[in-house]
Design brief:
about 100 residues; mainly alpha; about 40% helix; about 0% strand
C-alpha cells in the first residue's frame, strides 16, 4: 500500500473509534462524568453532549406564548337592510315556454 492510503486508513480508523467512543459516553452519563469533571454542569459542551442532546445548539428554543385576545361581544353593530334586485328576474330566458309541437 502507498503511504497516503495507509494514512487515510489510519485516520478513518481513529475517526471511527472517536465517534464510537462519543456514542458510548453519550449513552452512559456516569462514564462521561468520570472522563469530565464538569460533565454535570449546565454550560458543559463537548461532542458527547452534542450527540446526547441531538442538536448543535444545546439551549432549547424558547416558546412564545401570548395571552388570548379578548373581544367585547356585548357591542353588536347595527345592521342596515339593503335590497338587491335578483339577477334571474332581469334575464328574459325564462319568460316564454318552449314551442309546442303540433
Amino acid at each position: 500500500m502507498k503511504s497516503s492510503t495507509k494514512t487515510r486508513a489510519c485516520f478513518a480508523v481513529v475517526a471511527s473509534a472517536a465517534l464510537l467512543w462519543a456514542l458510548v459516553l453519550s449513552a452512559s452519563p456516569r462514564l462521561h462524568e468520570r472522563i469530565h469533571a464538569d460533565a454535570n454542569r449546565v454550560d458543559h459542551a463537548c461532542a458527547v453532549t452534542f450527540i446526547a442532546s441531538g442538536n448543535f445548539n444545546h439551549a432549547p428554543v424558547s416558546i412564545l406564548i401570548s395571552a388570548p385576545v379578548s373581544y367585547d361581544v356585548t357591542k353588536v353593530p347595527e345592521r342596515t337592510p339593503l335590497w338587491i334586485q335578483p339577477l334571474f328576474l332581469l334575464a328574459s330566458v325564462f319568460e316564454h315556454a318552449p314551442p309546442a309541437n303540433s
